[in-house]
Structures are given as C-alpha cells and as structure tokens.
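User: I need a structural model of Spermidine/putrescine ABC transporter ATP-binding protein from Peribacillus deserti for a docking pre-check later this week. Nothing fancy, just the predicted structure tokens so I can convert them on my end. Input:
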Amino acid sequence: MSFLSIQHVSHTYFTKKTAKTALSGISLDVEEGRFLSFLGPSGCGKTTLLSIIAGLLEPSSGEVLVEGRPIREAQEPMIGYMLQQDYLFPWKTIEENILLGLRILKKDNELSRRKTFKLLKEIGLEGTEKQYPKQLSGGMKQRIALVRTLAAEPKLLLLDEPFSALDFQTKLKLEDLVSATLKSFSKTAILVTHDIGEAIAMSDTIFLFSTNPGRIYKQIDVPEVLRNLTPFNARAHPEYSSLFQTVWKELENLEKQTPSY
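Assistant: Understood. Predicted structure tokens for Spermidine/putrescine ABC transporter ATP-binding protein:
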C-alpha cells in the first residue's frame, strides 16, 4: 500500500457563466520518504492539486488517500503546508510563532517544546526566540516557518514555491537546509515549482504537467547519483546539466502543444 495515493482526481471551477476544468484524471502513488516535484506552466493545476491533497479543496471527482484512508478521516493532522510567504504573526515572538501549531493541536508539552527548540538550533536560529519577525531577514523567516511546520510532526510536507521570493543565494542555502532536514526526519514531500533546476536538485521524481486541463504529461526520475548529493552540489554534477536540457525540451514540447487563445 502506497503512503499517498491520488486516484482519478479531477476538478472544475464553476462560476455563474463558465466552467473551467483545472485538473483531469490525475492518478499517482507516492511511497513514504519520497520527494516529488510538480513542474509545469502557469495554469496547469499544480497548486489546485496541492490544495486537494491538503484537504483544503474537495475535488470534483476522485479521492486522495493517506495510509489507505481519505485525508479528511485522519485521526490527527498529517499534513504540513509551507508557502511562498512565511505567514508569521508579526505581533508574536519567534517562540510564540513556532509553538503556535502545537498549542492549536494541544501538543504543547515539554517534550514537544524541547524538540522544537532543538530544531531551531539545528537550523542556526538559536537565540532568536524573543525576537519578532520584523527583526529577521526573509530567509530567516522562511526557516522559522519550516520549524513551525515540522514542530507538529506532519507525515507529509507540501511546499508551494517556498523559495521563489528569496534572493538566489538564500534560495540555494534553504534548498540544502530543507532537503537535509526532510531526509533526517524521513519526511514525504511534494514541491510545486516553476524552477527546473530546483525540481532536479531537490527531487526523487519530477511530474511534468500539461495544461487546459491540467494532466500529468510525463514522469521523470532523477538519477540516484544526484539524489545522493545536496541540492547545491547536485547543480554542479554533469548529470544535472543533461537532465536540465531534457526537462527543458519536454516543457518546450508542452508549450508547442498548448493552444493559444
């Protein structure tokens, strides 16, 4: 049994005058501990699918199962969601922000707090507990958002372009940090991105999406030699350049197949 199973998921957005099908017939199975990327042009339904997996949006048809059960029937929250914006509460201290999820879930006990502060130390932000978000850089705030997300110990982490608003140097550092952190906790993760390099450097498998409506166009498995490297070092490997060209050409083919309106 797969850890995550997406079965024949389709979704249509309705207005009073129109109906727009964002996704059509999406099916895939994900083993625990794997890192996937969803890559494709704008409007191909990647974020819609992520919202469906998170249980934030009910699909028009099909279902999503986590450990064999519909996500809405989970006994406890199983999914963490990390977005492009950090969504830290500016009037709360860093300590209050990272413990917020634990308090909501009624898991704010001594053991959970110790684990959370240990993670804060491991990502290099020990000593920021009494500071406020406005005192931190964008990259530091995204690291705080990661701690807050992992503090609740989700089994599945959803990443919706979490590095796209950062400068390139900070982005590369955070790719390494997030990758190492998820591997150390054996987390299953799905990344939505427009960045080919990011998808290759961080993922085990890349799913290319076509548009109008959104479908899985192709599955590309990242070579093991790249998966065993940090994202930063993977970018310097010859296999990276070769795979980048392959993915680039596939996306170009998709663009040619997409009708213009």
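Before docking, keep this in mind: Residues 88-153 form one domain.
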